[in-house]
Write a structure and sequence with these properties.
By secondary structure, this protein is mainly alpha-helical. It has helices spanning 10-21, 41-44, 67-77, 88-105, 111-119, 125-147, 164-178, 187-197, 200-203; strands at 2-5, 27-30, 54-56, 64-65.
Length: 221
């Protein structure tokens, strides 16, 4: 498998984590989003959306795209260990928790959004940072509201085995680290993220563990 990604891409991190949890390996090819590699014709031929991640499962196959779709593909093609519970209500809950992080929160901080805020609307660096921090905190608040009061929450988001929701919650924690958001006001989110960090599949997928990454979170824009 070939994974097109970027060391600091939160969406790529989710796929890295999913691959590691399933015990699968992929060769990662870097697409530097800050340099603009995603706009090169060679990559647009892989993913016309000009975004990472993109996963080529076998040579010559079309690339899979969108992190959540790739994670669902992994679940369907490599069902062990499972990302989703067996019951329909549980699967809906896990998917809902996952999408708070992956759909409601993360897209509002990606480079193209930050660039648009600056170039089209004249937002300075502080204003862009405030924008991103606001939506990370909104996402953490939504997750905490579910996790702290619902009986299904256990050691992880849903019971005592990590899964899809934990992959996405841990990616929100990485996003919070990048943009200097202290998650102390959200203790359940923080607790589950810390538990995930104890698992090598999660820890090894973090942006700061990737080739080309700086050694301190504070260097992230």
């Amino acid at each position: 498998m070939i994974l097109y990604g970027f060391w600091r891409s939160i969406a790529t991190m989710r796929v890295r984590t999913g691959l590691a949890l399933k015990g699968l390996a992929a060769d990662e090819l870097p697409v530097d989003l800050l340099r603009g590699d995603q706009f090169e014709e060679s990559f647009r031929a892989v993913n016309p959306a000009r975004a990472v991640p993109a996963l080529v499962p076998v040579e010559g196959a079309p690339a899979l795209f969108q992190s959540m779709a790739i994670l669902e593909w992994l679940e369907e093609t490599h069902p062990q260990p499972p990302f989703l519970p067996h019951d329909a209500a549980g699967r809906a809950r896990v998917r809902g928790l996952a999408l708070i992080a992956a759909a409601d929160t993360h897209p509002l901080s990606v480079p193209r959004v930050r660039s648009e805020l600056a170039q089209r609307f004249g937002a300075d660096e502080r204003a862009v940072q405030n924008w991103v921090q606001h939506f990370i905190m909104e996402g953490a608040t939504s997750l905490e509201g579910h996790l702290c009061r619902e009986a299904e929450t256990g050691e992880f988001c849903h019971g005592n085995v990590s899964g899809l929701a934990d992959i996405c919650l841990f990616s929100l924690k990485a996003q919070a680290d990048m943009f200097e958001v202290d998650l102390t006001p959200w203790p359940t989110v923080r607790r589950i993220a810390a538990r995930c960090a104890e698992i090598e599949a999660f820890a090894s997928s973090h942006p700061t563990r990737q080739p080309g990454a700086p050694h301190r979170h504070s260097v992230f824009p």
